Automatic annotation (TrEMBL):
Keywords annotated in UniProt: Hydrolase
Domain of life: Bacteria
Protein name, entry field: Alpha/beta hydrolase
Residue intervals of the AB hydrolase-1 domain: 37-280
Upper lineage: Bacteria, Bacillati, Actinomycetota, Actinomycetes, Kitasatosporales
GO molecular function: hydrolase activity
The keyword Repeat is annotated on this UniProt entry: no
Length: 296
């Protein structure tokens, strides 16, 4: 393990007011001048070990970065909810718990939030439910609630990532494109995710979490145009990003999101799929840094 890398961080725990013990890892500078911390929300079935260490290591020099397992996921206690709204309340409880602990120097001030895939649905709901808690919002591979075409994922996608046992080939087919460059980036990502850390790995997500999360995804995707109007409430700056060939959450939803949120900007990364932020980790981290440090 590289002790100064995400791959070498210890698994820590904090108890929240809702009774959940949350597993998390934190990295980056802790001094007062480091600015607003960045909290990460993970994808469908993902835990602490499913973040690409290269991405977090690229984000961490400029700010505190905190990844965690939401309730019932991985090493956190409790039961995984079946709705995005409940997941958002559980995530708020975690953010409040680490702020109240004082251990990370967060205090009770706002945080920046980066949500990926299902985590981006939760991030939207956090910002709507507790807007004062979120200074800036990053939505990676995202879609708004109620958008047409999001009521569950395409059969070839859920067959690849939703089975009890998934293979590296199935992961690559959804997270990366078939081009030589993207496929090579995918193999390198898998090596970093699974090869860099052999000890003290996070607890694997179980089938109950998979079922609950997919129920939440399908409920979020029930077509309802009235729900699209909710996003007009968001007043914080928002960065929306995706790969140009994402088969799981099509890039057109990124443009839809950006059109619905008053202070949103969008970027689509070339020759990449659901895992664009891992394939283009250096570029994406630089874009996130510039966005988080930019003018309001």
């Amino acid at each position: 393990m590289e002790l100064n890398s995400y791959s070498g961080l210890p698994n820590e725990r904090v108890k929240a007011a809702n009774g959940i013990d949350y597993a998390y890892r934190d990295t980056g500078p802790t001094d007062v001048g480091a600015g607003v911390p960045l909290v990460l929300l993970q994808h469908f079935r993902g835990n602490l070990d499913n973040w690409d260490p290269a991405l977090i290591d690229a984000l961490a020099p400029a700010r505190r970065v905190i990844a965690f397992d939401n309730a019932g996921v991985g090493g956190s206690t409790g039961t995984t909810p079946t709705t995005v709204d409940r997941m958002a309340h559980d995530a708020i409880a975690f953010i409040e718990a680490i702020g109240a602990s004082g251990a990370l120097g967060l205090g009770q001030g706002p945080v920046d939030v980066l949500g990926f895939s299902l985590g981006s649905f939760v991030a939207q709901q956090i910002a709507l439910t507790r807007p004062a808690l979120v200074r800036r919002l990053v939505l990676a591979s995202s879609a708004p609630q109620g958008a047409d075409g999001m009521h569950g994922w395409a059969p070839e996608v859920i067959d690849a990532v939703g089975n009890p046992e998934t293979s590296p080939e199935e992961y690559l087919s959804v997270f990366f494109t078939g081009s030589p460059a993207s496929a090579q980036a995918g193999r390198q990502t898998l090596q970093r995710i699974y090869g860099a850390r052999s000890e003290d790995r996070d607890t694997a997500t179980d089938w109950a979490t998979r079922e609950a999360q997919y129920d939440a995804v399908c409920t979020w995707g029930i077509p309802d145009h009235a729900k699209l109007q909710r996003l007009g409430c968001l007043r914080m700056p928002v960065f929306v990003a995706n790969g140009d060939s994402d088969p799981m959450i099509l890039p057109r939803y990124s443009h839809l999101l950006a059109g619905l949120i008053p202070q949103a900007r969008v970027k689509i990364y070339p020759d990449s799929a659901h895992g664009f932020l891992f394939q283009h980790h250096a570029e994406f981290a630089a874009d996130v840094d510039a966005f988080l440090d930019g003018p309001r």
